[in-house]
């Protein structure tokens, strides 16, 4: 999907805390399914939330991207909270 994938310090620290490697992050970005695609004011790029699985665990990977093929920056990675997401982790639960 992306030719260049960069990882922010924040995402790198979160990944490290979960035992994820840079290879894991790159694999998740390349194979993840887009579940949200947004542009928020104040951000320099649009962002996507990707749903990905590695070693049997489900993660959300948030990336800022320049376009769909050239550049993505991983800005966050986390295990989705079941209280905040649908059972398949694809949709936010309405409050």
Write the layout of secondary structure elements.
Elements: E1 4-7, H1 9-17, H2 22-31, E2 33-38, E3 47-54, E4 57-65, E5 71-78
Parallel strand pairs: 1-5
Antiparallel strand pairs: 2-3, 3-4, 4-5
Task: Summarize the structure in words.
- The chain has 95 residues and is of the alpha+beta class.
- 20% of the residues lie in helices and 37% in strands.
- The chain contains 2 helices and 5 strands.
- The protein has helices spanning 9-17, 22-31, and strands spanning 4-7, 33-38, 47-54, 57-65, 71-78.
- Strand 3 (47-54) and strand 4 (57-65) form a beta hairpin.
- The mean pLDDT is 91.
Structural class: alpha+beta
Major β-sheet annotation:
5 strands, mixed
The run of helices and strands is: EHHEEEE
CATH topology: YaeB-like fold
Number of domains: 1
What is the mean predicted local confidence, pLDDT? 91
Q: What value does the Rg take, in angstroms?
A: 13 Å
Q: What's the CATH architecture name? A: 2-Layer Sandwich
Q: Give the helix tally.
A: 2
Q: What is the CA–CA distance across the termini?
A: 33 Å
Work out the strand percent.
Answer: 35-45%
How many extended strands?
A: 5
| Widest sheet: strand ordering | 1-5-4-3-2
Identify low-pLDDT runs: none
Morphology call: globular
Approximately how much helix is present in the residues? 10-25%
Name the CATH class.
Answer: Alpha Beta
């Amino acid at each position: 999907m992306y030719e260049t994938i960069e990882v922010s310090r924040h995402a790198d620290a979160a990944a490290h805390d979960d035992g994820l490697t840079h290879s894991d992050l790159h694999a998740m970005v390349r194979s993840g399914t887009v579940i949200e695609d947004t542009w928020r004011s104040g951000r320099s790029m649009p962002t996507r939330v990707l749903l990905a699985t590695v070693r049997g665990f489900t993660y959300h990977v948030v990336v800022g991207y320049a376009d769909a093929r050239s550049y993505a920056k991983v800005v966050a990675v986390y295990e989705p909270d079941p209280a905040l997401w649908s059972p398949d982790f694809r949709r936010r639960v309405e409050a």
